Amino acid sequence: MNTYHESSPHLKAVLDVGQRMKMVRQSALMLESTGLRIDAVVGCGVSGIVFGTSLADRLQLPIVIVRKRDESAHSKNDVEGPDAITACHPHITRKQCLFVDDLMASGHTFEHTRKKLVQRYPDWKIMGILLYHDVMLFQARDAAREQGIYLMTPEKGIVYSPPPLT
Description:
The protein is of the alpha/beta class.
């Protein structure tokens, strides 16, 4: 007999189309305000892929999926998307993406995603982190500073902006 477990609050928010689309609208407007130009949205895990796909659709961008550690799938690939993007969108030359996730507690998912993406596709780079549920941003702020990339949330807006290139 299967036991039902209550979904976490962030997963509930992402699965509820009204809440998800509100977060997507806020995120798209915020992203546009940064002037940050991205070519794809990258998501990892269930809620990251659900939210990331909705945001990518809103921005009319492709989605890149990075599988979490020990995640089984029909494909043997850890990263899905860049080959199809290159084939279908040859005009994309910058190969810059936005990493979306619910929260960043330890930074392991971000680091795993970044490493897997760059390991398989060295010319792709994560230019920003968008956390759609995080309320404690200490770890995320440190990761953004270390990588020199944007950090933003739908509720708090742009939390960290990298210094301008000189």
